[in-house]
Amino acid sequence: MDTFHHRSRMPASGSELFRWHARPGAFERLTPPWEPVEIVERPESLEDGTRAVIAIRMGPFRKRWVAEHRDYTPETGFDDVQIAGPFAHWHHRHRMHPAGPDASELEDRIEYRLPLGFLGRLVGGGSVRRKLTRMFRYRHAVTAEDLRAHGSASDSRPLKVVITGASGFLGRTLVPFLTTGGHEVVTLARGDREGPSWDPAAGRLDPALLEGADAVIHLAGENVAGGRWSAARKERILRSRTDGTGLVARTIAGLERPPAVFVCASAIGVYGDRGDEALDEDSEGGTGFLADVVRAWEAVCTPAADAGVRVVNLRFGIILGAAGGALARMLPPFRLGLGGRLGSGRQVMSWVGVDDAAAAVLHALRSEELSGPVNVTAPEPLSNRAFTKTLGRVLRRWTFLPAPAFALRLLFGEMGDAVLLRGARVLPKRLLATGFRFRHPDLESCLRHGLGRTESGTESE
Q1: Which of the residue ranges 50-64, 142-156, 199-213, 374-388 has the most confident prediction, judged by mean pLDDT?
Q2: pTM of the full structure
Q3: Which residue segments constitute the domains of the chain, with CATH numbers given?
């Protein structure tokens, strides 16, 4: 039998640490983005006898892992034991130890045995231990930072939040981030899917779905980098933002009990191609298709603002995470050693880690002094050349195969020129001025965390 142990200090009481684990979304927050797992069945609680079922991709195969909860002790801990899965034996003990009124220690102890006895341990023992170390460094870091983000607000009462676009890359991080913090989240899907739905193309949104919410978060919109920009696609990009946003804003304005805050996704594309000029929320907008789209997008929020609702337009930079977005598309060629700069590599990339992007949304909900445009970018933007070198260093891969500008323009047309070959140095002036704390202010720490490439961590044995 082998034993793995990992223990870290947490910035919250033991009881709050336990509640964080017991709330919906904890499994999603604790699953590293590089792990190829799919949730088949969520447990209703952590109490004895409840089960979680996940599917693990192992090359071309899928393996079901069934874990049953045992030894449930409120505010202290719980165990999960493998009923079926890849191990010959697996017993995971989660313990929350008080360490003062606002501090605790999280302890994970796993007893496991690999299949095939001595041969299995000889062949796979080292790789399994390295994988567990990598995973639990990530899990403990996420837990600590999430608890810190939720505990930093002066008003920590739970909120009822309605979200559109929750199935997108940011939404898939934001929803469990909010629910583990104790907030009630209602997600609106487009079309006739199960659960609450709306249809922005048809102008259909039942006001009852928003009535009584403390906040509405609008993330929906077509991906601007999803392909070449034909005239029809550019029209869809514009309409996907203005039609949906305008419908939500007008519906909010007509409510008897409107939300206190309407947070609407926006983009740093409003600044256009500005080279190395330092830009913040007081800077003038730029020119071009994306700048025009963002101006129109933010303008249709006016009805909600006129009705007295605090409106925050979060101008997101390039959101980075291994589970989706730009970074997920970059990883396959970079891992093969086929990555390189785009064009000259001089264009500035203003980026933000996906966990910081989600935390910035919560900060906007809680910070009453914030309204209007707010840049959501890390405080250290950098050139595409520097970005490429940093990603290569984290992955330990060469980055000597540039993508020529003419080839990108040939393949992607106007989209390639506007999205891949141009940039702007956008700074998060208003976030920093209102006390927002970035988990990953520099690119290397962001990539090492999100790709599980940290070089040091809390004690493991």
Answers
A1: 374-388
A2: 0.94
A3: 2-151 (3.30.530.20), 160-450 (3.40.50.720)
